[in-house]
Design goal:
Elements (H helix, E strand, L loop, with lengths): L11 E6 L3 H18 L3 E7 L2 H11 L3 E5 L1 E2 L2 E2 H11 L4 E6 L4 H9 L4 E4 L4 H12 L4 E2 L1 H13 L4 H11 L4 H8 L3 H14 L5 H10 L7
Parallel strand pairs: 1-2, 1-3, 3-6, 6-7, 7-8
Antiparallel strand pairs: 4-5
Helix pairs in contact: 1-5, 2-3, 4-6, 7-9, 8-9
């Protein structure tokens, strides 16, 4: 794909898609700082508050940049990304998200976004990466690479280890788990030790926190 890099005098057109006004305002502020820092105008041409509107705005304006929240009403993030690639293939897609599920993050990365930032990322980091992204480079915030690595690690759990995980979280003892699974307490302890080693935790409390954070169990 050929990337069109605006000339120094040509403004960078931007669409901001997020269902929260405070985030849209924050990105406007970020663009103002980037304009001052690089001496290159970033021109916000439209905003969107849901997925379908985001696709429509990009189709109409074909912006150089799209700032996209992947958790919006009326269309999921990956659906939006695929449609935008169809209608405006040169638009560079920057995703801001608060999602911490390794599986969902991996899906977003695999969809081909050009940049992925946490909503808690330092503003300076995002501003500094804009020229790289416009030149066709890619940036995935390090914390997301760490999440994906943890998700791959968790994906190696066996079915029996997943059973043990859910029983530990529900508060069952090794003896109770052995009775339910019709195995010996010693075998339960072996699976439990393997489970905790794979997830790099050292107590039931840490195991529960890790399982919730990585979406390995239902929060309810």
């Amino acid at each position: 794909m050929t990337v069109h890099t605006p000339s120094h005098t040509e403004p960078v057109t931007v669409v901001i898609a997020d269902d929260h006004q405070i985030i849209r305002d924050a990105i406007d502020s970020l663009l103002a700082q980037a304009s001052e820092q690089f001496g290159h105008r970033y021109d916000r041409v439209a905003t969107a508050e849901d997925g379908l509107s985001a696709i429509a705005r990009v189709k109409a304006h074909k912006p150089a940049l799209l700032f996209l929240d992947i958790s919006m009403p009326m269309a999921s993030g990956v659906e939006i990304i695929h449609d935008i690639r169809r209608w405006s293939p040169e638009t560079r897609i920057i995703v801001f998200t608060g999602i911490t599920s390794p599986g969902l993050i991996a899906t977003v990365v695999e969809s081909g976004v050009d940049a992925l930032f946490s909503k808690g990322s330092p503003v300076a980091d995002m501003i500094d990466k804009l020229p790289l992204i416009l030149r066709g480079g890619r940036h995935i915030a390090p914390e997301f690479n760490d999440m994906i690595a943890r998700g791959k690690q968790a994906a190696t759990l066996t079915d029996r280890e997943r059973q043990i995980l859910n029983m530990v979280v529900s508060g069952k003892t090794n003896k109770e788990m052995a009775g339910v699974l019709n195995i010996s307490p010693k075998t339960v302890d072996k699976h439990r030790t393997s489970l905790m080693t794979k997830l790099d935790v050292h107590s039931a409390a840490q195991l529960m926190a890790r399982a919730l954070k990585d979406g390995l169990i239902d929060p309810t």
